[in-house]
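TL;DR need structure tokens for one chain.
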Amino acid sequence: MRTYFTKDNIDPDKDVALLPPDFLYYEDHPEECFDRHGRRWQSAATIAKVASGRLFAAYSGGGLDEGPNNYNCMSYSDDDGVTWRNDYLIIDHPKIVRMHEPILWVDPEGTLWHFWAQSYVYWDGRGGVWASKCIDPDADMPRWTEPRRLADGVMACKPIVRNDGAWLYPISIWHNFVTRFCSMPEYEKSNVYISTDKGATLTYLGSAYHPDTTFDENCICQRSDGSILMLMRISDGIAYSESTDGGATWSEAARYCVPSPSARMYLGKFPTGEFFLIHHYNFTKRNNMAVMLSHDEGRSYDEVLMLDERTSVAYPDAFVDGDGKVYAVYDRERYGDKEIQLAVFRLEEILAGRCVTPGARTKGIVCKALGARRTEEEKRAGTLWPRKYCDPLRPPTTQLDQYFKSFV
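>> reply
TL;DR here they are.
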């Protein structure tokens, strides 16, 4: 039996977020508390492809809102994403810990990694990036290694491999959430960590900083001259910074050339060297999910492929295979239709502005949760979503406010 957390059963020990979660494997459907037929929201998808061609996707789901009743779901597909075995694995924390930002990544040796973040209640000022490796990705029930905590913070986008073979991890600590349980101002930036031993250990490398980052969600991509471009989410768009020394020092962050709403983006690179950005194009709020192509390594963008013109589409992630085939996922209506969407395309699709190669497609579905929409009463009542707890100047007005204020 799993615990459903409310303001009435909060565990005051913030260090429970330092404990590993449970990996729950299911031969058939998950138990009722995790089943997608009752799931009230899901979002923040990620995707990767292993050597056999099997696709893996992960995403977060849970109760009424984002918070400590979250869990991460793992699915896979053996037919290029047409059909999926949904939720064969649920990663859930037994304590009052938010599970969020799942990221799948295949390293240069072909090993599939699953990264995620853990935070006490919602955000504790410290976070934590955790990792597990897939032992047997082609099995009917792929198993994963014991979870391991890598660093403080949140990694919401994939690592990259630097030209010299080092692995770089874009990890941030959210500095604009100022009511917190932990404080580490030196690292409240868009950080980069480095591993020179294939992920066994991580070391802080450097940081970019913009005063208006919200959830940072920084992503990085290396250019042919060795410089590295970092994008980061700000309250009304995207900021960027550049490093010419491998990620140790960064230029002063400035507004990026692509207008956008405040949301996560994906910055990728084709094997032929062209950069591409998956984000919102000619948008009004979070609509018009599109791919934009750059011929000058992220300095400007030209051709555009529209993936999904509908509203409430957000949080893209993608994987580019060795042949230049891109698999992109994003969420649609995370509290309504609750769909994880899939698009498959190549460079040719972006140049043509439409699907022209075999297998290219848009608006495929990885997973659709079938739980009821939140009622207006539930929306008004709120959950443990803490936006109203993040202003230290606001006097406490509720029992939960009082509880959180006692830790400040």
